Each structure stands twice: as C-alpha cells, then as structure tokens.
Amino acid sequence: MAKKINSLSFQEAFKTWLKIAALSFGGPAGQIAVMHRILVDEKKWISENRFLHALNYCMLLPGPEAQQLMTYTGWLMFGVRGGLTAGLLFVLPGFLSILALSILYTTFHEALWLEGLFFGVKAAIIAVVIEAVLRISKRALKNKVMQSLSILSFIALFIFRIPFPWVILTAALIGFWGGKKWPEFFWIIRGHADAEKDTVATFEKVPRSPTSFTAHFFKTTSLWILIWIAPLLGLSALLGSQHILIQQGLFFSKAAMVTFGGAYSVLSYIAQEAVNHFGWLTAGEMLDGLGMAEATPGPLIQVVQFVGYLGAYRSPAPFSPLMAGFISSLLVTWVTYSPCFLWIFLGAPYIEKLRGQKSLNCILSAITAAVVGVIANLAVWFALHVIFGKVADTSIAGLQLWIPDIATFNVAAFLLALAAGIALFRLKVGMIPLIGVSALIGIILKLFTQI
Hints:
By secondary structure, the chain is mainly alpha-helical.
C-alpha cells in the first residue's frame, strides 16, 4: 500500500504533478496560473499564502521560477523526494517534445512545409516577445529611476554589447545601494507576504528547519554541485576539455546562474553567444527554437536543448549526429535545471526568514527593470532577423550595431508579424492559437507562393 501523508498518497500527487506539467503552456504566467488553480483552488493541498510566499522566493532566484515553484511545492508536501519528482516531471513533457521536434527539424529541414511552419511561427514570436516587454514594464517601471535602468540596460546590450551577466550584476548592485539611499524609488516589488487571510489546505504546517544552518548549507551545496558537474567531469575525461559537449555544458551552466527575470531575459545572451560566438546555429534557427519552446509545454528556457542539439549534431565526432544531439539535449537540460534544485533545497527551509526583506526586494526591483531592457533587446534582434533576409553586425565609431539590408525586406514576414500583433493585442487571441494559426498561414504561403 502506498505511504500516505495527511491522507494524500504519493501516487496521487505524482499523477497531479504530471497533469500540471502537461498543461504548462503559455510561459511562466500561464504555468503558475495552472499550478495555483490545481494545487490551491481544486486540490486544496497548498494554502494561498504558502503558495504566494514560495512564489516570492522563487522570483528572487536565477532560473525558471515556474519549475522552481513546482519543486518547492513538491518539497513542501513530500520533502526532497516530492521536490525532485515534481521538478523533474515539470520538465519532462517539454524535453520530450523538443527532442522530437529537433530530430524532425534536422531530418526534414529542407521540406517546404517545415520551412513554412517555422516562417509563420517566427512572425508570431515577434508579437509574443513584444507583449512580454509590455507586460513586465507595467509591473516594474513604476518611476523614472526604473525606466532609466531599463533604457540603460537596452543601450548596454544593443549598442555597447556589454555581456548580459554584467548587466544583471550591475542592476543588482544599483538596487542594493539605491534601496539603502532612496527606498521609495527602488522598493517596487513588495510581494504578497502581507496577505491577511489564507485558504484551508492539506499541508498547513511549516516544514521544520535544519538544526544547523552550516551543516545544511555545506551538505546540500556540496551534493548538488557534485550532481551538477558530474556529467561534465565524466565527458571531459572521455572526450577532452575542448569537445563541443564540454563547451556547451560550461556555457549553459554559466547561463543558468544568470537567468534572473525569466527566460526572455537570458535568451538574448544565449542567442548572441550561440549564434555569433560559438556558431552552433544561425539566427533564423534560434528563432525556430524559440518557436518550438513557445508551442510546447514546460519552461521557455528549454530552448537551450534545441541550441545544444543543433550544435552537437553538426560537430558529432566521435558519435553519430543523432547520438551527439541526444547527448547534448540531456547535458544542457541537466546543467540548466540542476542549480534550480540546489536553490530550492538549500533555501526553502529558511523562506520565512528571507520573506519580506526590503533589501532583497529592492535588488529584485532593479533587476526586473533591467530585464525589460534585456527583453526589448531580444525583441529588436529577433524582429530584424525575421523581417530582413540579411542583417550585418557592423562597427560604427567604435560601436557594434545591427544594420539590416533594406533590399532584403520581407513584406510577407512583416505583414504576418503585424497581423499576429493585432490578434494578440487587440483581439486577445491566446498564445497557442496564435502560434498555430500563424504556422498554418506560413505553410500555405511557403507551399503556394514560394516566399
């Protein structure tokens, strides 16, 4: 008989976690809404306050907050076993979907219908990313200080090409210092910790904190860092430190540490490094990968799997292309999510101590404002590469600028992106229907007009 906790079997929780994972479309907002509806409203396993407290904590962390929130609620219900299971299940549908699409992409990449599908998806993605900029702007840019941080962030990335991690670190330092001097300008994100009423839930008790913080810190940190880097150490011993799989593992490990503000914020950094520095894929292929991640369940950051797959597929030795792509898919997914489990299992027992600290919320406010500029940079970069056939990376007066070739302006791509924007902003069409219809239009255009 299954072990029960508070009259809830682990098997029942397992089925529910899998259901949430399968329904997790629409980015973090949609994913968190699904979790809230099922765990808080329907099942009543987690209380309203506890859910929101956990969400506040996850928003302070690098990495996909929806996956971390799923891990946290699983830990709250069944300890480490629950956190691991819930967190892994949340990633599984997206991993399998993108693996299948990656194989399909490399097998039929010259098929007109597939080219048309991604042509339509990329046009819709422009509208989706712009919508993300506006959505976060409403929450984060409450005064001129926050607006200035956002503008400076955009300039730093788009014109001066300052590395993304430095932009986020600088914003965090500004938030910390500014919060001390002028909290009225920097304490924007205050969270939900002061809610007065709570809902009835199966799991009401606060989990017991470790008796020794030092022992818990070193035990948890050392274990998860070992889990994090073990595949890299093994592959490095077998293939050498210069192999593409090692490069990908190290790069995406670094990216996982700076994914503040959601996947859109770090995608600009990943896209520019993967395309321009490493040459693992083209800008158009990066857009195709983003379309895959938008149209499949799970975190948007799962696009890193497609990036890794294509890079390894094209430099497969000593493996076959398919095997190299599969290994890369596993590796980049592993190094992207391993730190998420570290942050939750390390910090969740102390969430009540972290909750409500003004200095942390000032830092988060500044980072979120900078993220608006980061996503705006991503939106411009994507739009240029979709609407124009050629975009040159040109140096002018010491500045690196993206200059489109006007002669390669794609009227069909522009009109489809415009139509997608109208559907999203004016007609309030959902993201999945939007992408589906855009993909269908792209296929028709490609098959019958040869755009």
